[in-house]
């Protein structure tokens, strides 16, 4: 009897890393687990970062296939093989480029041409033992027709339009909103710092502008599709394939049907007999097939995510008083929502002992030089990032001392990132990437108490030896065994808008974080009496506040306090500690 196989396939590119476990355990092959992790272009990632990604993936496969963008030379393959063998020493391992996995996903061992358009772009064809390529020279010299190229051309066009007309176009407005910038001039500084993936993420803005009918953006999209069609014809001619099978691979084709249609139209003129179709199979399955060599990977199927009975969470339940909210007047709705906020104080009081435990853990760790990391997704994650961002200006601590980790990264602060919270491996990798140590505290935030990203981060933190705190708004959640070092379950109950945890659950979470981080700052000596003595004075309002604070603390006039602060370069602590004999 043939032994069961567990095949781990990994495909990494400039936007993300996809992975899949294909198993023959129990008979027929099938997909066990799937997931996504951060980008892993081999040319743009250090060995340590790549090992950190590998470290959170399953440890017991019999076969491993790893195909990464940027793995182009024999030296690249040697480097990648060495790392893969280090992580999975007992598995049968195979490495290659994302072109290899794309071909395997599209054709297995057969002949054809794969047109890849994601962050970068390339065309890869095979006929028997012959292989031909076009494009894929990287963002500086190539990647024509890929997301980076289209986004960069869009940015250049936006600035050119502004130079000519001094008008900010709708596309420019969308780009500023997507990046959180206030002025078009800020784009220059951003572009100087941005990496390839950050630029490529703006490609959807260009596509939407083309859909709205902005002629220059439509021309950019058409030019990209035309270039890829011309590369495809060139590869087909070199392989002597007059009627090739062509498969379209990558996010630009998968997410933008108009781009697929434009490419097909252009290629129908250049290669009328070509058969073109979208390849919907993940490149990770292609990598898994390559690792097996002798049998094709199974047809993809959706893998269930172990979220438990989420519908049983109190935050997901229907509120008995909400009824039909649309039938109520505005005054009735205001009264109802305001009355519900009373639950927040009650919930905090019910968790007094747990809050004390959490505040002591955080304060003790930070007094000993440790850091506080908030980890969350959605509203909970944004609240963690908010508290982390407010601590430095309020209490004068370094931003590194309190950090927020958000499922989906920076982009998720402004836009929902599909599936970001469903990956415990991504949470574990985020903890490793931020350099969490045993001295630190990792504070997980999940209103439902079941977010895989958060639980994965906490479990990895526990393995590292860091202290762990968990906050939920669902006392009925399944309890981890063993539990976390401190657990806060705020009983806020059902929301008036079912499942909208930005309401009571969000208010209670914000209040709890304010309480815990403020107590830690008091313990660190960042407050004197009730005064923020390490306040960062950065504007006129804060200068006025600082002068009133010093005036009240020292019993001197407002003008005297102002003058003292000016002498001390607006350092409140220094002004308070100056000898009283130097006041006047």
Give a brief rundown of this model.
The protein is an alpha/beta fold. The chain contains 22 helices and 17 strands. The chain has four domains: 6-103 and 282-292, 2-Layer Sandwich (Nucleotidyltransferase, domain 5); 135-278, ATPase, nucleotide binding domain (Nucleotidyltransferase, domain 5), CATH 3.30.420.40; 325-523, Glucose-6-phosphate isomerase like protein, domain 1 (Rossmann fold), CATH 3.40.50; 531-582, Orthogonal Bundle (Helicase, Ruva Protein, domain 3), CATH 1.10.8.1080.
Please describe what this structure looks like.
It is a single chain. The chain has 4 domains: 6-103 and 282-292, Nucleotidyltransferase, domain 5 (2-Layer Sandwich); 135-278, Nucleotidyltransferase, domain 5 (2-Layer Sandwich); 325-523, Glucose-6-phosphate isomerase like protein, domain 1 (Rossmann fold); 531-582, Helicase, Ruva Protein, domain 3 (Orthogonal Bundle). Helix content is 46%, strand content 16%. It is built from 22 helices and 17 strands. It is globular. The protein has 584 residues and is an alpha/beta fold. It has helices spanning 47-55, 74-87, 98-107, 147-165, 170-179, 186-193, 196-200, 203-211, 215-239, 251-255, 257-270, 283-292, 330-340, 342-350, 352-367, 378-395, 424-433, 452-464, 504-523, 540-554, 558-567, 572-577; strands at residues 6-12, 17-23, 30-37, 63-68, 92-97, 112-117, 121-127, 130-135, 245-249, 275-278, 372-376, 402-406, 441-445, 467-472, 486-489, 527-528, 531-532. The strands form 4 sheets. A 5-stranded mixed sheet has the order 3-2-1-4-5. A 5-stranded mixed sheet has the order 8-7-6-9-10, sandwiched between helices. Strands 12-11-13-14-15 form a 5-stranded parallel sheet, with helices on both faces.
């Amino acid at each position: 009897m043939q032994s069961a196989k567990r095949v781990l396939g990994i495909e990494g590119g400039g936007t993300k890393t996809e992975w899949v476990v294909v198993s023959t355990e129990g008979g027929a092959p099938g997909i066990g687990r799937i997931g996504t992790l951060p980008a892993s272009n081999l040319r743009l990632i250090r060995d340590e970062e790549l090992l950190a990604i590998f470290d959170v993936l399953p440890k017991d496969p019999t076969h491993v296939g790893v195909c990464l963008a940027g793995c182009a030379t024999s030296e690249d393959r040697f480097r990648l093989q060495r790392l893969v063998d280090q992580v999975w020493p007992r598995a049968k391992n195979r490495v290659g480029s994302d072109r290899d996995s794309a071909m395997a996903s599209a054709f297995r061992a057969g002949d054809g041409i794969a047109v890849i358009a994601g962050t970068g772009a390339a065309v890869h064809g095979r006929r028997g033992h012959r292989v031909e390529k076009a494009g894929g020279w990287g963002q500086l010299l190539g990647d024509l027709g890929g997301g980076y190229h289209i986004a960069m051309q869009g940015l250049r066009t936006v600035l050119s339009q502004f130079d000519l007309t001094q008008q900010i176009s709708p596309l420019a407005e969308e780009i500023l909103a997507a990046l959180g910038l206030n002025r078009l001039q800020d784009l220059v500084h951003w572009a100087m710092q941005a990496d390839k993936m950050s630029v490529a993420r703006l490609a959807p803005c260009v596509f939407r502008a083309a859909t709205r009918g902005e002629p220059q953006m439509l021309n950019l999209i058409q030019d990209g599709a035309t270039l890829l069609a011309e590369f495809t014809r060139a590869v087909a001619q070199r392989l002597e394939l007059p009627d090739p099978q062509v498969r379209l691979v990558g996010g630009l084709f998968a997410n933008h049907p108009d781009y697929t249609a434009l490419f097909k139209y252009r290629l129908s003129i250049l290669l009328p007999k070509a058969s073109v179709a979208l390849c919907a199979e993940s490149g990770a399955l292609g990598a898994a097939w390559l690792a097996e060599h002798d049998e094709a990977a199974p047809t993809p199927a959706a893998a269930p995510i172990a979220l438990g009975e989420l519908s049983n969470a109190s935050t997901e339940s229907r509120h008995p008083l909400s009824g039909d909210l649309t039938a109520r007047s505005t005054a009735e709705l205001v009264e109802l929502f305001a009355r519900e906020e009373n639950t927040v104080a009650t919930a905090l009081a019910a968790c007094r002992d747990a809050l004390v435990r959490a505040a002591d853990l955080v304060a003790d760790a930070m007094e000993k030089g440790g850091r506080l990391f908030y980890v969350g997704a959605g509203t909970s994650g944004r609240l963690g990032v908010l508290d982390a961002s407010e601590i430095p200006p309020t209490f004068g601590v370094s931003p590194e001392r309190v950090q927020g980790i958000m499922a989906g990264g920076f982009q998720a602060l402004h836009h929902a990132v599909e599936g970001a919270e469903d990956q415990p491996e991504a949470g574990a990798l985020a903890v490793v990437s931020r350099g969490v140590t045993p001295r630190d505290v990792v504070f997980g935030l999940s209103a439902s108490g079941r977010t895989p990203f958060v639980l994965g981060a906490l479990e990895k933190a526990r393995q590292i030896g860091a202290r762990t705190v968990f906050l939920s708004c669902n006392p009925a959640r399944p309890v981890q065994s063993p539990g976390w070092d401190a657990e806060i379950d705020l009983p806020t109950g059902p929301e008036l808008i079912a499942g909208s945890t930005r309401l009571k659950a969000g208010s209670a979470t914000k209040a709890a974080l304010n309480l815990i981080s403020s107590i830690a700052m008091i313990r660190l000596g960042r407050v004197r009496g009730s005064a923020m003595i390490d306040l960062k004075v950065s504007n006129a309002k804060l200068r006025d506040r600082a002068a009133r604070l010093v005036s009240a603390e020292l019993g001197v006039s407002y003008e005297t306090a102002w003058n003292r602060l000016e002498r001390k370069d607006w350092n409140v602590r220094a002004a308070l500690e100056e000898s009283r004999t130097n006041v006047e």
